[in-house]
Every structure is written in structure tokens, then in C-alpha cells.
Amino acid sequence: MCPGDPSHAKRQRWGRPLQILGSIVPITDIECTVFNDLLVGPEIVSALKAAHFSGIDFTPVELFSTTEIPISREVYELKVTGWGGQAPPESGIKVKEECPYCGRQVFTGITNSRMLFDIDGWDGSDFFIIWPMPKYIIVTAKVRDFFLERAYSGVAFHTLDKLCSSRFHNLQTFSPGNLADWFDRNKLAELNFRARGN
Ligand SMILES: [Zn+2]
Fold this sequence. Notes:
Blueprint: E1 19-21, E2 30-32, E3 38-40, H1 42-50, E4 56-64, E5 70-80, E6 83-86, E7 95-98, E8 105-108, E9 127-131, E10 138-139, H2 141-150, E11 173-174, H3 185-195
Parallel strand pairs: 1-4, 6-9
Antiparallel strand pairs: 2-3, 3-5, 4-5, 7-8, 8-11, 9-10
């Protein structure tokens, strides 16, 4: 609980495992929840594992119909665990507000997406996010080719420099909440280790 503003304690994500309303038959190969969580079926999980991509993890999702009846379809959340570092200030992303009580930060939006990726902050993962944009999944060209070759539906790829185009005009500010909402304990320890420059 934040003594300054109770809304700060609100988590940016749903609890896990995800329990969501789903369709009985998938509409696309890759499905997306309203919170931009990616859902995939067992065939895609096997294919991604066989390709040995790094920076992803899979957790089973429980699907329910609108009448709250469980749907017995095997679905997994594709969770990104790779780290692409913190957006450099040259990208336009800077701390706009910081709560003096809980440290929750709000960031300004992107003005130059060409400057978003700093290779020194990247852990080398094939799938990763750049802080403070945990909802934007960034992948290497190898991953993009993998998806395009297999023609999976429900996914689109854009180059990073196009992030500032009108398509993404909603990138005015970012309120990503706490890192702990997005990464598990082991990953947080690793990120702290990296942040100390070790
Ligand atoms: Zn606060």
C-alpha cells in the first residue's frame, strides 16, 4: 500500500496463472488478451522450444466461457523474460514523475525510437522488453523470420524505428508500475546485478 496514493499499489498485470474468457476454437494462431498478454497453443510452444529461442517462458492459461464454464483447450501464455535494458534519455523517455513514498515512476513518451535500443543494456535474449515499455515485445530478426516462415496468424512485426509513426501515437507516457510486476525473483536479482555494473 502506498501512503501517498492508494492507486499506486494497483498491479499492472493480472494474477497468474491467467484465468480468462476465451473462445472454444482459437481465432488466430497467436491470440492476444486486452492486456497484450500473448497466448499460444502447444504446437507453437513446441516449435519455439525446438528453435531454442531465449527470453521466453510458457505458463498454462485457464480459459473460461462467458458462462464461467472451463474450456478444455490447451493454451499457454508466452511470457517474455528477456531484458533489453532501460530506454536511453536520447529516445525521449525520461522520468516524468516519481512517487516519494513508493518510488512508482511515470515516464515521458518516445520522441526518437531509433535511440530506444542500447545494446549495452541487452541481455542477448531473442525475446525482450525495454524498460519502461514492458507491453512492447521486441524480438531479434531470427524470431521474426521464424514467425513469418511459418505464417502464424495473429502477429505483426514492425521495425523499432517505426514506433514513433502515427500507428503508435498512444506512446505519450508510460506507467509500467514496478519491475516486480513483470519479472520473477530470479530475473530481478539478475537485473539488479547487471545494474550494479558487475
Ligand atoms: Zn506511491
